[in-house]
């Protein structure tokens, strides 16, 4: 997620934002801002003797602009074909069977679609950081081979192509009675993803995969000092509990051979709604983040770490009180447990919203909104505009409440509503990343300035540092 393919020497991540990219090659062409001005490479028609030179292979290659347009065209054609095949296949099914099948197909492919959405938005985060001059590689302690936003978007593109294609094949085969072949589609897809992640050879962005898996291991077992990337990824995982919940149910059906069946609808099914594994999976990301906060308190002794741990602990009663609906009588749930669930939801939403604004973003008292007479250091980005703060604070409050509502295990059958809320939560996290990384970047710069005393640098060096910062 953070590291990856090799970056060329003129990468925007290794130079000042806005500078010009120049490729020093006498046989090629000059590129400005990564986009060619013509559709074809210029040809050297005359040599020093006035003659002609043979046309090289690179001279007849189309420009990246044309290739990009062709890729977009093929992508749209592919999307239309998938929608057409999927719609015709669904219409072949009987009306009573159609809804149940679509719900099952949704559970298999929904977590992968949400993951693809998160990767697309993460690429946008990196692009904005690169444009704004935020050294995110330093913040996340990445090496020079980290993935840029272009490589991130390339991965997201492949995810966006492969997952819907597999889903279309699943629907197509099932509608024509090929149940066994249809059941193999999600199994092969999940197996392929696992193989790509753990592939031990230096292909498929090996350094990125290793960095991602190593960070996950540090989240599962916080036996060392917690770095920024550790709790940053753990925070993102708390916004993707819907993905983990559906993954658990999908893998459970694959193991028990319930793919492309309706056996999981039975209440006593091991993968049914009464399964205790569902609330356990929902609560795991919050427990991981809770352990990280306790580890930070052990290392630093700061009481704010305990307050942060308390914030994550407020999500536990929301999840388990909701799960009790499947294990108690309806009257008892309505009269006793539901009011407790509502109260715990309000506490969790309010506490989380307060922590986002005052601690993660350092917007205590909304000082940046009402004190714009002195522009902020990041005013050249969107952060310096007042409407951005009003929007992100208001939307964060609303989406915090809706996400707490989604943590309710008794809503798991409202799949379209749950998918919408899960996608909105990923969008909220996408907004949160901008201000959280900005705040961390400001703190890093402040610490570096404190460490440099006036006697350590000359007047000329001090002016240079001031102009750079």
Automatic annotation (TrEMBL):
Subcellular location per UniProt equals:
Membrane
Location of the EXS domain: 269-469
Q: Which membrane topology describes this protein? A: Multi-pass membrane protein
| Keywords attached to this entry | Membrane, Transmembrane, Transmembrane helix
Q: Which Pfam families match?
A: EXS (PF03124)
Signal peptide start-end: none
Transmembrane stretches in the record are: 66-87, 107-130, 151-175, 187-207
Record flagged with keyword Cytoplasm: no
Gene Ontology cellular component list? cytoplasm; membrane
Which protein are we looking at? EXS domain-containing protein
Q: Which organism was this protein described from?
A: Lotus japonicus (Lotus corniculatus var. japonicus)
């Amino acid at each position: 997620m953070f590291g990856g393919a090799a970056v060329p020497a003129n990468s925007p991540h290794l130079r000042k934002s806005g500078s010009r990219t120049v490729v020093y090659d006498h046989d090629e062409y000059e590129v400005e801002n990564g986009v060619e001005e013509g559709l074809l490479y210029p040809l050297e028609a005359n040599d020093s003797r006035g003659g002609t030179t043979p046309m090289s292979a690179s001279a007849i290659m189309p420009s990246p602009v044309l290739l990009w347009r062709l890729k977009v065209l093929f992508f749209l054609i592919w999307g239309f074909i998938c929608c057409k095949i999927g719609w015709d296949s669904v219409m072949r099914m009987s009306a009573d069977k159609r809804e149940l099948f679509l719900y099952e197909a949704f559970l298999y492919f929904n977590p992968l679609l949400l993951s693809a959405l998160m990767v697309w938005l993460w690429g946008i985060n990196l692009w904005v950081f690169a444009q704004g001059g935020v050294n995110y590689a330093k913040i996340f302690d990445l090496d020079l081979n980290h993935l840029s936003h272009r490589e991130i978007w390339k991965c997201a593109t492949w995810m966006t192509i492969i997952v819907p294609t597999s889903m279309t094949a699943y629907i197509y085969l099932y509608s024509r009675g090929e149940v066994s072949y249809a059941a193999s589609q999600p199994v092969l897809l999940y197996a392929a993803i696992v193989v790509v992640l753990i592939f031990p050879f230096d292909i498929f962005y090996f350094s990125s995969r290793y960095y991602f898996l190593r960070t996950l291991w540090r989240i599962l077992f916080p036996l060392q000092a917690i770095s920024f990337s550790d709790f940053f990824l753990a925070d993102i995982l708390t916004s993707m509990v819907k993905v983990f919940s559906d993954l658990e149910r999908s893998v459970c059906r694959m193991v028990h051979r319930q793919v492309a069946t309706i056996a999981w609808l039975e209440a006593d099914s091991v993968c049914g709604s009464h399964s205790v594994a569902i609330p356990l999976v929902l609560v795991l990301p919050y427990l991981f983040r809770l352990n990280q906060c306790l580890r930070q308190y052990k290392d630093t002794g700061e009481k704010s770490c305990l307050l942060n741990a308390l914030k994550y602990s407020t999500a536990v009663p929301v999840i388990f009180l909701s799960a009790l609906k499947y294990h108690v009588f309806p009257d008892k749930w309505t009269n006793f447990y539901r009011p407790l669930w509502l109260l715990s939801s309000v506490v969790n939403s309010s506490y989380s919203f307060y922590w986002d604004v005052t601690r993660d973003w350092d917007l205590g008292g909304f000082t940046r909104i009402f004190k714009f007479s002195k522009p902020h250091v990041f005013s050249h980005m969107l952060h310096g505009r007042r409407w951005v703060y009003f929007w992100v604070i208001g939307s964060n409050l609303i989406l915090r409440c809706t996400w707490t509502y989604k943590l309710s295990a008794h809503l798991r059958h409202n799949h379209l509503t749950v998918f919408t809320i899960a996608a909105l939560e990923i969008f909220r996290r996408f907004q949160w990343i901008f201000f959280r990384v900005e705040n961390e970047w400001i703190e890093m710069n402040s610490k570096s300035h404190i460490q440099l005393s006036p006697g350590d640098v000359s007047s000329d060096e001090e002016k240079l540092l001031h102009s750079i910062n």
